[in-house]
Amino acid sequence: MLVILLCIIMLIVLVSWAKLNPFVAFLLVSIAAGLMLGIPINKVTASVQKGIGDILSGLVIIICLGAMLGKMVASSGAAQKIAEVLVQAVGQKYIQWALVAAGFIIGIPLFYGIGFVLMVPLIFSVVYKYKLPAVFIGLPMIASLSVTHGFLPPHPSPSALVVLFHANMATTFVYGLSIAIPAIILAGPVFAQFLRKIPSEPLATFRAEEIPADKLPSGVVSFFTALLPVLLLMFTAFFPYLGVTNDSVLKLVAFLGDPSIVMLIALIFATYTLGIKQGKSMGQISVYYTDAVKDISLILLIIAGSGAFKEVLTSSGVSNEIAESLKKFNLPPLVLGWVIAAIIRVSLGSATVAGLTAAGIVASLVVSEHVNPNLMVLSIGAGSLAFSHVNDSGFWLFKEYFNLSIKDTFRSWSVMETLVSVIGLIGVVLLDIFV
Hints:
The protein is mostly helical. The chain is built from 19 helices and no strands. The longest helix is centred in the C-terminal third of the chain and has 34 residues, at about 280-315.
């Protein structure tokens, strides 16, 4: 625990005080952590490389294609059109709530990373067009994406916990909804009221010049193109319930439902509907895509660095040691599950790793203490979202996309995640009284 604390302090000092590039800081801290935690000196770099490879292998395609899609949505005027339609439908006064609802609906079928890169252009289009505070408008939608990621199946961690605890997927989803909605409201629009004055100049890649109304794509084309990844993922998620048994068809749908393939299809579709069909040449479109990748290259490196740090801590076995020591505390099982997940989350940064590690520790308690397995899924899911900070890739995604200082990222993103986590635990405890 002391080594982890020292490494986290070192990371914060290097990035915020020494102004060192975060990627370089992550590499230095990861190597130092590996050596201090007893990883053989000839294997430390292997752990660092594995961590970088593991996290980028699942994110680099999605983030790059998502940035390209976002650039096209912004540059073509589709984002401007979507913002206009939303504001006309609910009024500028309630635009924040409209975005929260959109984020919640989209967050159910989408992985967090995909939902983030898809919704950021929409957030920024509203921010730029109506001159609203970026964090005030954007954080509530990001909160809704985060809650669905941590609480609700079919996201990876909750789904795995349902299987591990032999819970019921539908029951967990219903209980999760009853907790998720108040968590989103309190940690989103309510908390955001205190963040109006946070200075933020979001990434320029998602900012397009104001386009005359008669040259904008239609509302139908704009919405359909921007939401095509969501529609494709929802279709593949519900396809198994249609009763189709043909093996070839099932394999094809599984292939088309892979997030990377979904993003590629969406980008190809956007290239035509928002590019070629709007009179742009492939040369112009290629420039958009090149600019988009340039703008998110540093984000990819920072995420890679956080993956290296997480891998060093995981491969050293420190997460298991922390969990085993906490198991000795005399706490109610639901609270214990939350505490273990929260501390591993703070130590390692990964919500999924925290959730699955905690589940392995308390799995025996679910049976021996007759704990409601559906509530244990939600308790650990809530704990796995606690206090996201510099060792979490989500922290850096939010910081870099919204172009915030470390301090302002802590008092917005980190506090929001902690509120979601604590409200989730309170909801679980209250549900345990009645169910």
